[in-house]
Amino acid sequence: TVQRDHALSLQREKADLAASMVQGYLHSLEADLLLANTTLAAAPPSDLALRADILASIIHVPDSPIEELVLIDPMGMEILRTGVGPDRPLADVAPQPVYLFPKAFEGTWLSPVRFGSQLGSDQGDPHLSISVPLFDTATGELVSIMAADVNLSRLGSLVTELGLRESGVVYILD
Question: What is the dihedral of CA 155, 67, 34, 51, to 10 degrees?
Answer without folding.
Answer: 160
